[in-house]
Amino acid sequence: MSNSSERPTYSIIIVTWNALEHIQNFLPTVVKTDHPSFEIIIADNASEDQTAEWVENNYPQCRVIKLDKNYGYCGGNNRTAKFANGEILIFLNNDAESDPNWLHGLDKTFSNPEIGIAQPKIKSSEAPDYFEYAGAAGGYIDKMGYPFCKGRIFDHVERDTGQYDDHSEIFWASGAAIAIRKNLFDILGGFDEDFEFHMEEIDLCWRAHKLCYKVVYQPESVVYHLGGGSLPMGNPRKVFYNYRNNLTMMTKNLDHNPILRIFGRLCLDGVAGVKSLLSGAPKETLAIIRAHFSYYGQLRKTLEKRSQIKSVSKSTTPENLVYNRLIIVEYFLKKRRTFSELNFENESQ
User: Fold this and answer.
1) If DSSP codes are grouped into helix, strand and coil, which group holds residue 91?
2) Which CB contacts under 8 angstroms, 24+ apart, belong to 48-55?
3) What is the pLDDT of residue 343?
4) CA nearest 306: which of 186, 187, 206?
5) What phi, psi does 30 have (nearest 5°)?
6) Distance (Å) of CA 48 to CA 72, 150, 170, 205
C-alpha cells in the first residue's frame, strides 16, 4: 500500500472459496486500479483449488489471508477486516471487475464525514450497457422490507443511459462492492454472521443509519459484476437465505414493535410458496418453509440483538429512503418496472 495524506487509504477485501477461475478472470482488473493509496487482500476460505498459491505466485503485491475453514461471505470478511490497514474497507465480490479510476469517486464521497457507507455504480460484466442485478444504482426497501434498486426491480434490469448519474443517498449498498469506514465497521461489529449469505449488507447499512451515518451511491465509481457466481438465481439455498434473512433483518431493525409487519411478511411468503408450488418449483416452496423454521429457531437470539441495537441507536430508520407502498403490487399489478416509474420521492412523503 502506498500512502497519501490527501486521500483516504483503502483496503479492498475479496473473499473467495474454490473460485480460482473467478480470481483469474477478475483480479487482474482490480490490480490495475489507478490510485495511490490502496491494498488488495484475498480472504481465502480454505479453498482446495490452489487459489492462495496462484495469487501469491502471480500477484505478490496482493496479501493473502488463509482462513482455516469456509466462513462464508460474512465470516470471511469479518475475520479479514482485522488485518486491513486502510481507513476505508471495500468488500468486493470475487466475480467483480473494476474501472481503473473507480476509487477516485469514492475519494470525493468519503471527504464528507457524515457518510459512512458507499456503493459504486454496478453494471453487468456480461452486458456492460446494463445495470447488474446485485445493487445496480443503489438499494432501497419498501414498507414490508422487500429490497429493490435503482436500475433493478425484481428481475427487470434497466439499461444504463445516465438516468441515475446523480450522487444520492440510498438505504443500502450492495455487498458486491460495498465501501465502509473501518472505524464504523468495527463499531457495528461487522456483518452479522448468522445471516451467512444475502441481506447482511442491508442489515449493516440499516444499523449504520441508526448511528446517524449516511449511505450513498457514487456513480463516478464503476464496477462490473458477473453475478450469480456464488449462488445462481433460483437456487433453493439462495431462496432459503433470502427469505430467512429478510425476516431476521426486519425483526432486528424495525423501530416499532415488529409483530404486525412480520405477520404480514409471513403471509406474503406463504403466497410466494404456493405460487412456486403451482409453477412447478417445489424445491423453492420447501426452501421458504425451511427459512421460516430457521427464523423461528433463531428468534430468541435475534430479539437479543434487537435490544442491543435499540440501546445504542442515535436515530430512527430514515423513512424518506423507505418506499411506503408494496413493491410487489407496484411491479406485478401496476406494471411499474423502473425506479423512475415509482415516483419514489412523492410517494414516500
Assistant:
1) strand
2) 48/18, 49/18, 49/19, 49/20, 50/20, 51/16, 51/18, 51/19, 51/20, 51/23, 54/20, 54/23, 54/24, 55/23, 55/27
3) 79
4) 206
5) -70, -40
6) 15, 38, 38, 33
Domain count, the chain: 2
- Residue 77: inside a domain: yes
In angstroms, the first-to-last Cα distance of the chain is: 45
In this structure, are 206 and 262 located in the same domain? no
Residues 6+ apart with CB under 8 A from 111: none
Domain residue limits at 96 = 10-225
Sheet (strand 156-157) strand order = 156-157, 152-153, 147-149, 139-142, 322-323
Cβ atoms of 163 and 176 closer than 8 Å? no
Coil, strand, or helix at residue 308? helix
Query: How many alpha carbons lie under 13 Å from residue 20 in its C-beta half-sphere?
Result: 12
Half-sphere CA count of 10, side-chain side, radius 13 A: 29
Residues 123 and 254 in one domain: no
User: Are the CB atoms for 182 and 88 separated by under 8 Å?
Assistant: yes
pLDDT lower than 50: segments of the chain? 1-4, 229, 346-349
- Are residues 47 and 167 located together in one domain of the fold? yes
pTM of the predicted protein model = 0.94
Task: Report how far residue 315's alpha carbon sits from residue 295's, in angstroms, rounded to the nearest whole number.
Answer: 26
DSSP state at residue 320:
G
Within a domain: residue 345?
no
Burial environment of residue 193 by CB neighbours within 10 A (0 to 12, 13 to 18, 19 or more): middle
* Same-domain status, 133 and 161: yes
Residue 96 maps to a domain: yes
Cell representation of residue 242? 433470502
Instruction: Measure the CA–CA gap between 120 and 106, rounded to whole angstroms.
Output: 8
Residue 124 lies in a domain: yes
Whether the CB-CB separation of 110 and 8 falls below 8 Å is answered with: yes
CA distance 69 to 159: 39
